[in-house]
Design brief:
With about 575 residues, this protein is α+β, with helices and mostly antiparallel strands. The chain contains 23 helices and ten strands. Keywords: Membrane, Transmembrane, Transmembrane helix.
Length: about 575
Amino acid sequence: MSKEDNIYRWLFDLAKHLVGQTPGRSWAAIFTSLLGQACLMVAMLLPIKVVMLLGLDAIPSYMPEPLRSMTLEQLTLLLSGLTLVFYGVYLAGEKLTGRWIDSAATEVIGKTGKVVLFENQGDIASDTYKRMVRAVAALLLTLGVISLLGVLYLNMCLALIAFFALSIWPAVRIFHYAQRINKPQLIIQSLNNLGNIGFLVCFAVVVVDHLYFSAPSVLFTIAALILARQATSKIAAGVGDLTHISRQREKVSALLYQEHLLLQSKGNQSDKIAPLLAPPARDRWLTQVLRQCEWLTSEQENIKVHWLQSTTPDVYIFGVVQVATGRSCLVKIFDTTRKALALHEASLLSSPCAEQLPAPKLEHASILDGFHIHVLATPPGGSPLDDRGQTEALSACALRALCYCPPGGEIQDAYLRSHPLLWQKLFGDLFQPLYLAADEEQTTHLNDICQHLEPIREKLRELPLTFVNPAINYRTLIAHDQNRAQVSQWGQWKIECFGAQFPANAQGIASIADIIDQAQGQRSDIAQIDSSLVKLACWLSGIEQAINSQRYLDALDLLPACINCLRAVKILPPPKPKQAP
């Protein structure tokens, strides 16, 4: 049995399981949902009839005898009142359905005897129950509408049945295609479009019958057309609910079936990218891409490909070496979930600033079967680290080179239009959580910072800007000289005030002094800067990151150093000398 067939079978078994576990509440929920949807349908139909009556001078003759004995005003008020009554019944039915569903879902989860599997599992169970009930009610309502149409308007009934039958094949194909490319919204859009087409088919039947053949009265025609519209929309919504349930199959099975386990995924690879990573297919598309960018110029050139460890999930890196010349490059392929990361990296590495960055040259960027591809030319003799002992020294080299590369031009303008800098993040509300864990002395420090936020922000605005790459580590460093290194991953680059990129510890502070001392001839704006202001940015950045991670005690530990820097840059006065007893 294919995977697709299994989905349909699983949905059918799930419906039987839910009803079998709590039959009373399940059927009660289906009944109240069906009643509510039927009442809503009538509530939508009656206002149209009221509007038609408002344009008449007398009650139409086709009205039943009890209604014709009323005045036009009385009938209008009666139908308007019934509209409110039916809508009220719909709301009450939905409320009651929700209670039945919540109660039944809680009981089914309890019967499995399992511990908590994941967050909001109760919400997922209730949502699954609700969608399944809605889908069953929609199916029953559609069958009821078709039966009623068979009495009111046989031709429209036959047209609707034919349309539903012919729609099964394209709906199934669309479902499989959307599942394969992981675009569930495509299913909903397509179902809505099919529903609209079904309504237009019914409308065409009405026009043809009234012009060329026999047709029921206008009243029955209007009622039949509205019923047909409800049938097509309800069945589309029901199929959409089943599609949503199928996307959470593993969680729902583990949650509602006693014998099912929630197995961890073997990886985040999409079904489509996994075959491209295997050696036979990988070598083919790698060769194709490298010829496109003319890194390979002859079909006779042989290459050796090896897998490199990526520090970012769903980003895969291959090292490629020309056997004859020894030239090397990196080829990255980004899964569809990392499209933004690929574009962010390409925007920087294709900018004029890239020439000064400790980064491989971006030779080529393209899209292969929906996946972004980057080809990065590594320097002669460059290779990923094979000795972890080199990490600290080469990380420092890469960080120093990054600091000496000034941002500017369009890349800086584009970044600053969409991302805040450190000084823009410092507001009083940021520090409020720290008061929960602060002692008396720390509270005093917090008050000093909060009362001087405006001058602090003004001071930080004076700092030059610099690029930041949080992905500098053993796996991303490329050594090509004893004193030089490049970084292979740039998907998370940022621009920040100088100082904010350093770790808020003694090692980071020492790096600041070293980089400022060696900045002469590299970046004059850094060489002339007050080191105390840079350290202030470092400590405040550390506090901000700790607060956002809810590490309040770690943030409070940084307050004394931050206060000392505020005094050094003369935002706070020096401490008062202690008086002798």
